Amino acid sequence: MKIKILCTLLLALLLASCGEYNKILKSRDAELKYTYAKKYFDEKKYGRTTTLLDEILSTYTGSSKEQEILFLMAQAYFYDKDYTTATQYYTRYYNKFPKGDYTELARFNAAYGLYLDSPDARLDQTSTIKGIQEFQSFLEYFPQSEKAPEAQDLMFKLQEKLSYKEFLAARLYFNLGLYMGNNYESCIVTAREALKNYPFSEFSEEFQILIVRSRYELAYYSIEEKKPTRYRELMDEHFNYKNMFPSGKYLKESERYYRQALKALGQEVDQVTNEAVQQELSK
């Protein structure tokens, strides 16, 4: 019985609330709608907030209230997790009010919304790239902001996602090998470009060893006249790996390719290299 009464009361309150909202929607009083939009925002009824503000925005264009309405709309969409629309309004706000009261937060949230909207690395990364650009812009305009360290950290995370996407592509090219073309070359180009674009990525070592592996496969499957050149290219990439990662986890593997290249070229492993190889193998 008590549950039934409680449900009846809740339904009555809901109907009363809806009735109030519908009256506000039908009203021609822009100030009333503005007041209720802020009230609904405080109550976390963001859909109602954006609907009311959208109806009165043109009324207040050019007035002192315009920037507050624009920012409140952006905030409502942001908290409603519609990050794409939120970013549009944040951008609209800081472009129109570059020295506005909320410009710093608008620039940060525009970038942060894109960060939150950034999809899995296997998917299209348009929002990730835009997020990086927005964070860069924020840091240019507000280098001393309290949010600057957070912006730098989030921007790095987005860059790392792009790096991971490149790693997945390079690894796929390597796994495809000579299927339907020379995918080893594509692997090398992709990995090398990633190393240039993301020099501090946690995947840097993965990129370099993929280059070494691809050079070895290219040399091994080459026609005889191309083998010498390609084995020398392999040796160069081995030394690149060794210089970049002197204690790398793939060092033994890279040394093995190097020794095979020397053997294929009819050369002997020099004493220093041999000692280093033996030391690595004995670990």
From TrEMBL:
Name of the protein: Outer membrane protein assembly factor BamD
Species the sequence originates in: Dysgonomonas termitidis
Domain Outer membrane lipoprotein BamD-like span(s) in chain numbering: 33-179
Ubl conjugation in keyword set: no
InterPro entries in alphabetical order: BamD, BamD-like, TPR-like_helical_dom_sf
Keywords assigned by UniProt, alphabetized: Cell outer membrane, Membrane, Signal
Annotated signal peptide: 1-22
Transmembrane segment boundaries: none
Domain of life: Bacteria
